[in-house]
Amino acid sequence: MYGIYDHEWPGIIGLDLSKKTYSGCRLSGDGYVRRRNFTGKMTKEEDGYRRLLDEIQPEDLVIMEAGSSSFNLARFLMSSTEAEIIVLNPAQLRLIWDSQKKTDKADAMKLACIGRDMRREAWPVVSVPIEEEQAERSIVTFHVYLKEKETTDFAILKKGIVERDLCILGLKGERRNCSPMTMNGKLRRKE
Fold first, then answer.
1. pTM for the full model?
2. 3-state class of 88 per DSSP?
3. What is the C-alpha to C-alpha distance for residues 112 and 9, in angstroms, rounded to an integer?
4. What are phi and psi of 126, to 5 degrees?
5. Which spans in 56-130 are helix H?
6. Residues 83-110: what's their mean pLDDT?
7. What share of the chain is helix, strand, coil (3-state, %, to 5)?
8. What is the Cα–Cα distance from 120 to 116, expressed in whole angstroms?
9. Which of the 8 DSSP states describes residue 172?
10. Residue 82 — φ and ψ, nearest 5°?
């Protein structure tokens, strides 16, 4: 039953993750045409990751999109099961992005179908970072956010100062178009 596959898995599982829940689709049987959907919470408790472990058999293929919670889950599954865990780059998954039906259940099925229908060489695989690397990425991402916010805040402040100066110099046109500051810097009453 290898077909386009270089390996035969007992099942192919597609996982669509959100911050609080996951939706899974398991394909199994000849040609991976038998489908079963399941859901759970994104926690390590009984109704979360532990429930997901009950769904995964040794040597299954588990496919998920890269996202905010996928790397933590991928590391957990890699250390807790013998299944093959694959994380894909969502920006390169046109099958999902171009879809008319955008539900967690439908996306999980599409991810499982990627494992069934697409050659492994075509999978847009993302390597799973170790925890330290992910922490460093988070720091860099936060630094970039702060720099962008600083730039935006500075532009807003600069615009306010320029408007005030134009009003003080009388270059803004009619006084009612000026900011709430008068020429002496006190708040003026709204007219």
1. 0.66
2. strand
3. 12
4. -115, 135
5. 70-80, 94-97, 104-117
6. 82
7. 45, 20, 35
8. 9
9. S
10. -95, 5
